[in-house]
């Protein structure tokens, strides 16, 4: 049977998915570097951005499954349905959560700005501890989901990589 690692690394479907995910993350990091002129390593592991690594992963695995067992296989059907759910979720729920995080960050941190600039009335009662929204409060992550273009970019990348990588013995 071999070790767990050798079983994982010899799995064609997993290999295609990992190569697609990693490629998307590298491309995302490079595009961010050119856009902002600084290396943001968070992009190597963070969600959101162009191309969608989630879409690249699931689309490459779906095409790899089709190459391995055929388009008529129930396994292909399962991976196809899974890919559709992941991509829909990336454009819908996760994107909406990211948009909500942007709004909440604006509200919280504009409130902090207002609090810092507020003249304190001598009758103002002192507060115990730090008020909610104090300057060291952690910002919510805004890069969570994807635009339709980012999802299509990831989908095309995943299809390209699965097209290039051949199943064992082929």
Describe the overall structure.
This protein has helices at 4-9, 12-36, 53-69, 74-91, 93-117, 148-164. The protein has 170 residues and is mainly alpha-helical. The protein is elongated and about 60 Å long.
N- and C-termini, Cα separation: 23 Å
Supply the number of helical segments: 6
Instruction: Please state the oligomeric state of the protein chains shown.
Output: single chain
The SS-based structural class is: mainly alpha
Report the β-strand fraction as a percent range: under 5%
Write down the overall mean pLDDT: 80
General shape: elongated
Rg from C-alpha positions?
Answer: 22 Å
- Topology as a string of helices (H) and strands (E): HHHHHH
Keywords:
170 residues; mainly alpha; 6 helices
Secondary-structure blueprint of this entry?
Blueprint: H1 4-9, H2 12-36, H3 53-69, H4 74-91, H5 93-117, H6 148-164
Helix pairs in contact: 2-3, 2-6, 3-4, 3-6, 4-5
Can you summarize this structure?
The protein is mainly α. The chain is built from six helices and no strands. The protein has helices at 4-9, 12-36, 53-69, 74-91, 93-117, 148-164.
């Amino acid at each position: 049977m071999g070790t767990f690692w050798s079983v994982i690394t010899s799995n064609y479907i997993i290999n295609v998915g990992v190569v697609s995910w990693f490629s998307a993350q590298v491309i995302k990091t490079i595009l961010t570097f050119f856009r902002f002129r600084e290396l943001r390593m968070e992009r190597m592991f963070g969600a959101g951005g162009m191309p969608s690594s989630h879409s690249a992963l699931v689309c490459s695995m779906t095409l790899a499954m089709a190459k391995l067992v055929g388009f008529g296989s129930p396994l292909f059907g399962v991976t196809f349905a899974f890919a559709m759910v992941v991509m829909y979720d990336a454009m819908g729920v996760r994107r909406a959560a990211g948009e909500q995080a942007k709004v909440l960050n604006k509200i919280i941190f504009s409130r902090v700005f207002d609090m810092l600039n507020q003249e304190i009335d001598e009758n103002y009662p002192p507060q115990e501890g730090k008020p909610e929204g104090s300057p060291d409060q952690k910002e919510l992550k805004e890069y969570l989901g994807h635009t339709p273009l980012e999802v299509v970019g990831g989908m095309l990348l995943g299809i390209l990589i699965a097209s290039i990588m051949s199943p064992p013995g082929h």
